[in-house]
Amino acid sequence: MATKRKPIHTPSSGASASSRPQMNFRQGVNDTTARSEAKGTRPTATPTSIKEVLTMMVLHVCKKIIFFDTGLKVALYLGSLFLVSLIGDFLPYPKTYLARTDNLFNVYFVKLGWAWTMLFTFPYLAMTSVTLCCGDNQRLLRNHLPRLGIATVFWFVWTKLFNIIESSYGRCSVRGFDSKTPCLKAGHFWNGFDISGHAFILIYSSLILMEEARPIISWESIKDLLRNEEHNRASNDTTQTSNPLKGLKEEDLKALKYFYTRFTPTIRLLFVGMTMLQLLWDVMLVGTMLYHHRMVEKVLSGIIAVVTWFVTYRAWYPVPTVLPDPVGKGMFNYQTVKPEISGLRRRASLLQPGTSSSAAGGAGGSSGSSSSKDIPKFMGMPLYAARQPYNSSGPGGATSPLESSPGGQQGPAFVSSNQHLYGSRGGTGAGLSSSSSSYSNPDFNHPSYARYRSRFERFES
Fold first, then answer.
1. Can you say whether residue 134 is alpha, beta or left, with left for phi > 0 and alpha for psi between -120 and 50 degrees?
2. Segment 108-153, tens digit of pLDDT
3. Between the CA of residue 42 and those of 48, 224, 231, 238, 349, what are the distances in Å?
4. Which is catalytic among the residues 144, 198, 292, 420?
5. pTM reported for the whole predicted model
6. What is the C-alpha separation between 428 and 437, in angstroms, rounded?
7. Residue 60 bears catalytic tag
8. Active-site annotation holder among 144, 292, 293, 420
9. Per residue in 294-310, pLDDT tens?
10. Exposed, middle or buried by CB within 10 Å (0-12, 13-18, 19+), for 5?
11. Choosing a second label site near 269 at 20 to 30 A (CA), which of 7, 62, 117, 198?
12. Active-site residue 198, yes or no?
């Protein structure tokens, strides 16, 4: 039998657009306005290009190199200075290119080591600090640049002191020369306690590079913080309180965005250069250990370098009431440690022994209702079955039939006809009808378990 189709009425060509049915749920609101009125949303990050991915990979490798554990690195410095140098004093190592005092790295890098260190560290510190201070140049000059000035003063004082000690407590290999300079000009050898200036400058410069490079840690997160804070202020969303940029003024936020966008590429390039320079200092330090100075002279210079670094960067700068500020301190803190997420770990199953409900039942006071409250539920139904306290020996007993035998001995036992995992069925006698039966577990009396109850009752019968 053929069915008649209803004719489809189409609007005439002369009908106005307003008479046509509107498919939007909210009429008169365009898509842009609807998105701007949405609450609880966050702007998404811009797509990452291949160049950005490669840059992040290079930065990640550099961070692994330069941010090696500082305590372990200091121990390696001092330990290798002692052990490697001690072996070299008694068993000279085979000569290599690093043994020559006129090698390329020694002439053009080590002898100008502090200049190379400042060449990378000074602009890096200036750019990162002015960004974190939101363009406050006074704070940059007062709170951050003095760190490099203090380091330069220590470098100058210690190296000059090393030369004074060598000149004052030494003698020429040929009599008739009382000072170092005339002895060396005459082509003779000056015997003195020559504290290794090379070992000092290499270790001290490496530690300075490691400390001053720390602002790059979590530097990329500033971009996300800026995007989210701008969205919060544009939408007047005051519910988000975890953004560290929330307390900045509008002009400070604009300055932060300007300097961050402008300086970030250069900061990354300088950081890579600092990492390469730190690797070069470590290689040249190995050459100094192998071929130059005596063990005592190198170990003493290494101790002086480590103590100078520790006193300044670990004891002095972290004091909040004393200038200069520690590395990375600005008008906001972007390197906060994320709190540990708690409450996401699933509790141990109540079927397992040693849980709170079984322990409470074993104490003699927990009833089936208290343990049923601990059962996780979804839409009113338990997510997984819970063990109910079972009274096998009297009012004080709380042992499950699955865990103990009828004689009271611990161990597996068969479940009797009136006892099973979901509790014991009320009443005694094998002829108890299903209509009058009830179970100690209230969840098993739920109507949705009718199919399972019928199976158990057929099995028991």
1. left
2. 999 999 999 999 999 999 999 999 999 999 999 999 999 999 999 9
3. 18, 10, 7, 13, 37
4. 198
5. 0.66
6. 10
7. no
8. 293
9. 999 999 999 999 999 99
10. exposed
11. 198
12. yes
